[in-house]
Amino acid sequence: MISADDDHFRDECGVFGVFNHPEAANLAYLGLYALQHRGQESAGIVSVEDRILHTSRGRGLVADVFKKSDMDRLKGRRAIGHVRYSTSGGSCSSRNQQPLVVDTYQGGIAIAHNGNLVDAIDQRKSLEHRGSIFQSTMDTEVIVHLAALSRRPEFHDRLVDALSQVKGAYALLAMDAQCIIGVRDPYGLRPLVLGRIGENGWVLSSETCALDLIEAEFVRDINPGEMLVITDKGLQSFTPFPVKKRHFCIFEYIYFARPDSTLDGVNIYETRKKIGASLAKESPVAADLVVPVPDSGVPSALGYAQEAGLPFELGIIRNHYVGRTFIEPQQQIRHFGVKIKLNANRELFKGKRVVLVDDSIVRGTTSKKIVNMVRAAGAKEIHMRISSPPTTHPCFYGIDTPTRHELLAARQSLEEMCRFIAADSLAFISLEGLYEAVGGQGQGYCDACFSGSYPIPSPETSQGLQLSLLEELE
Q1: How far apart are CA 403 and CA 386, in angstroms?
Q2: Does domain 267-320+334-442 have CATH number 3.40.50.150?
């Protein structure tokens, strides 16, 4: 769950799979390592050998979860993995760690899921009335139960049966003794890409940066509504779901994806620079330097500085070695939560007019502390520029967001927000400027967190009910 000291959204998870490679589990480990930014609460890998599923999961970062003994147990030429950031209604107790592994009458299966089902609670109630017993509070388990109830002979057909009955966002990897399946929801909300490794090996990943790490060749993005089945006979592509208008999550381009990834044909780093340039055109200001809020604000700040003709400086330094803090000081050390991660370079700020560039404002608490820190370092003026439109609505499709009344932009005007964070000026990129930077609105994006226009109908009622029940179950 997002803390009050964190002004960033959190993506729920990342998925990674390897088919037909002698070191499948080791490659999955490296893939998850590259996707660590998508989830830091738990990690898991499942491999298969001789029809037996081998599982290793745990709470924490990838490097902390998997020991050599764990990797030695993960035998076989195929594996899927998962990194998770728990949502508001869940936890990372062992029952909620993925990939989810179950035994069915047709053999063991494993599923790793990035996204969120908006009708999960209704589905869960229906399944429980039919006799299903749930072991976790994850919506992913709904998919497992629906697949297990299907009487179709092939695993991918049972998965189609299950996914045809649910609503929501998913980039999903599934594995049994014969195959690995990758499937993306019909709206294409969450990313999933295909790569090739070696002569006959295949890789599925949330982002292309993970392919680069293991020296896999990028092949293509999985299409919205596509199911890709990989067996020893090769690849089979199906489109078993009704065609929908594409609604790829636009926040992937703003914040979630790593800058060195390319998703749906769009390079993240170059796009963030274009967003910064658009922001500079829309909201220029007389200033002496442009400073990013690290690390996510760096590409946009660089684009802003280049467009504005201003010096770009790393005036705020991030401590990259911060883990969980278990000793906190008393109240006399103010802004502790921010200052342990970020520190102002005083020599750069003295007497300067500064443009601070960040990717988003959620509650406003961190922005306020950063502005105060920079002003205390001697800045004469501080102009906050945000490379996303005001976030006025929560996400229901796999992003951990506060409720609407907690979102600063949902309850305050621009002037009120500026006063709250104590900046001299505040500006957000417009939705039109954002679309210009990413290639046009006609490409098809989900911008519900900015516009309130949800591509999947009526998620708020379903999500509110889902979260209340899941919190009771925890």
Answers
A1: 21
A2: no
- Both tokens assigned to 376: 């205390």
CA distance 459 to 45: 31
Parallel, antiparallel, or unpaired: how do β-strands 180-184 and 168-175 relate? antiparallel
What does the pLDDT average to over 369-398? 95
Q: E strand or H helix at 465, and its extent? A: helix 459-473
Q: Model-level pTM?
A: 0.90
* DSSP SS3 for 139: coil
Residues of the chain with CATH 3.40.50.2020: 267-320+334-442
CATH 3.40.50.800 fits 10-247, yes or no: no
Question: What tokens appear for 349 in the block?
Answer: 């700020």
Q: Are 256 and 35 in contact (CB under 8 A)?
A: no
As annotated, the residues of the chain forming the CATH 3.60.20.10 domain(s) are 10-247
pLDDT, averaged across the chain? 89
Residue 28 pLDDT greater than 90, yes or no:
yes
DSSP bridge pairs for 181: 174, 229
Confidence of residue 443 (pLDDT cuts 50, 70, 90): confident
Q: Where are the alpha helices (DSSP H) in 190-308?
A: 208-213, 251, 268-282, 298-308
Q: Is 13 a known active-site residue?
A: yes
CA distance 73 to 55: 8
Sign of CA dihedral 295, 296, 297, 298: positive
pLDDT per residue as tens digits for the range 340-357: 789 999 999 999 999 999
Token pair in block for residue 403: 């409720």
Mention every residue, 6+ apart, whose C-beta is less than 8 A from residue 429. 275, 278, 279, 282, 283, 386, 387, 388, 389, 437
In sequence order, what are the beta bridge partners of 442?
none
Q: What is the DSSP letter of 397?
A: S
Tens digits of per-residue pLDDT, 195-246?
A: 999 989 999 999 999 999 999 999 999 999 999 999 999 999 999 999 899 9
pLDDT score of 109 more than 90 = yes
Q: For 271-287, write each residue's pLDDT tens digit.
A: 999 999 999 999 999 99
Let me know: does 94 contact 26? Beta carbons within 8 Å: no
Q: What is the mean pLDDT of residues 80-88?
A: 79
Q: What are phi and psi of 349, to 5 degrees?
A: -95, -20
